[in-house]
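Q: what sequence does this backbone want?
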């Protein structure tokens, strides 16, 4: 597309008007040949600082802001006043053909985004629909997810990713895009310009206060998905206070279809009521009531919260026009998500469960859920806290682990640039009986110790990293997988 057509109201120099661009980028790491590159002023530098790499990439033109110093003379460049507004305008225009083919399902919440996103995407695929995913588990068609550096990618990476997913399904009339939407993304405008077929709210608990500073700011960021973005339908967990408030506010406006869900009674025509949740050795069962009809649900998933996650998925599918009988038939086929309550059965009858829980409420919910599955066994909890992140949660997680686990081992998570011993010291301030807690900072040794001492009927929760296959120490990512450590120890022990 020529820049003249991409920006019809912008007074471009003649040297730029006829330049043809084949993509848009603002991060030199993701720039491609033929791109229009938006050079932004960052906290630690300017986009034009990376010109050597951009030249090799073969970008077609540059829009830049501020006073970067040296502006390249060998690539057409143009200084603009409101570069972020132009980026949004360009993205919506350039990728409009792809956007018109998409049904974007935006999912936000402190806990459960990845599980609900994966459940939804898998169900849509089983129904024979063209589906892509953008979130913690990767970017792309469900069968070919590529690594993702941010749960919700930066603005132009997100738009390009949507375009690339749609291109894979070139013969499909429409493509479902299941998108995890984080509070950071909403606060930073990474989803600006998108319209959502479905916007889904799961819950809100303390998190990311290193960024948002207060829970009120965090809540406001989450609510932006429902207050500032176009959406034809919203699926809302009304068992959560914020979810209930959103439901009442959106109901009063009367501008969209709503699917409230939860255990709380709700007088609404689309209410998805959860009741009679039963946790047992093979998974969970519960009753789902919708529009006067009740359904007995059996699932191989573990944990009380997974009843809510499954019903959030049900709401998403109903919002896309899929009939309830087809959805009910699918539910038993929705199984574990990697790193989310992922069970590894040990030879001696104990079970290691790997879960991403790295926040106080998530840890609480996982521990409570697992305890109900082992009335006669012991529950081990291995956890740590990430460095350079919210320090206030450290003693809170200690309190929760001590209250709900029989044996607690504090270890490293991703210490990053913080001293790991100092992190663990802050965790230990939350224990009432610290002398009963083990501190094994080497995560591999901590896991191996728990696996070696657990007996038949016990569960070992290895919390915090879930699907991650790395550990960040300093500024370096080292290969590390909780699941691989458990599997290797089992093999070695045979």
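A:
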């Amino acid at each position: 597309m020529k820049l003249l057509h991409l920006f019809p109201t912008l007074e471009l120099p003649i040297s730029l008007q006829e330049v043809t661009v084949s993509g848009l980028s603002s991060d030199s790491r993701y720039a491609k040949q033929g791109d229009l590159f938006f050079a932004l002023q960052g906290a630690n530098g300017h986009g034009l600082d990376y010109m050597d790499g951009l030249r090799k990439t073969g970008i077609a033109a540059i829009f830049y802001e501020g006073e970067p110093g040296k502006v390249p003379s060998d690539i057409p460049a143009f200084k603009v006043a409101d570069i972020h507004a132009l980026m949004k305008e360009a993205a919506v225009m350039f990728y409009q053909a792809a956007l018109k083919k998409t049904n974007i399902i935006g999912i936000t919440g402190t806990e459960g985004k990845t599980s609900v996103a994966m459940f939804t995407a898998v169900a849509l695929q089983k129904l024979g629909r063209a589906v892509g995913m953008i979130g913690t588990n990767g970017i792309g068609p469900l069968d070919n997810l590529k690594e993702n550096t941010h749960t919700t990618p930066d603005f132009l990476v997100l738009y390009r990713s949507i375009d690339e997913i749609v291109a894979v399904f070139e013969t499909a009339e429409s493509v479902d895009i299941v998108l995890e939407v984080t509070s950071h993304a909403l606060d930073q405008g990474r989803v600006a310009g998108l319209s959502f077929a479905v916007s889904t709210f799961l819950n809100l608990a303390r998190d990311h206060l290193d960024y948002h500073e207060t829970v009120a700011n965090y809540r406001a960021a989450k609510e932006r998905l429902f207050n500032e973005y176009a959406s034809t339908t919203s699926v809302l967990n009304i068992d959560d206070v914020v979810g209930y408030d959103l439901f009442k506010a959106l109901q009063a406006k009367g501008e969209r279809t709503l699917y409230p869900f939860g255990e709380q009674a709700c007088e609404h025509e689309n209410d998805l009521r959860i009741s009679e949740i039963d946790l047992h050795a093979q998974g969970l069962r519960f009753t789902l009531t919708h529009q006067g009809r009740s359904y007995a649900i059996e699932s191989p998933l573990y944990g009380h919260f997974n009843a809510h996650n499954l019903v959030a998925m049900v709401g998403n599918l109903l919002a896309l026009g899929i009939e309830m009988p087809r959805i009910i038939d699918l539910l038993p086929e929705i199984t574990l998500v990697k790193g989310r309550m992922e069970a590894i059965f040990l030879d001696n009858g104990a079970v290691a469960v790997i879960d991403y829980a790295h926040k106080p409420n998530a840890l609480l919910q996982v521990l409570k859920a697992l305890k109900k599955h082992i009335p006669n066994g012991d529950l081990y909890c291995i956890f740590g806290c990430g460095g350079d992140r919210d320090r206030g949660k450290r003693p809170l997680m200690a309190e929760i682990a001590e209250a709900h686990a029989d044996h607690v081992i504090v270890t490293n998570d991703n210490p990053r640039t913080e001293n790991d011993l100092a992190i663990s010291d802050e965790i230990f301030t939350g224990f009432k009986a610290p002398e009963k807690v083990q501190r094994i900072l080497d995560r591999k040794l901590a896991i191996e110790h728990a696996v070696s001492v657990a007996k038949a009927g016990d569960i070992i929760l290895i919390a915090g990293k879930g699907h991650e296959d790395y550990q960040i120490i300093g500024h370096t990512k080292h290969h590390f997988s909780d699941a691989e450590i458990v599997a290797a120890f089992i093999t070695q022990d045979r």
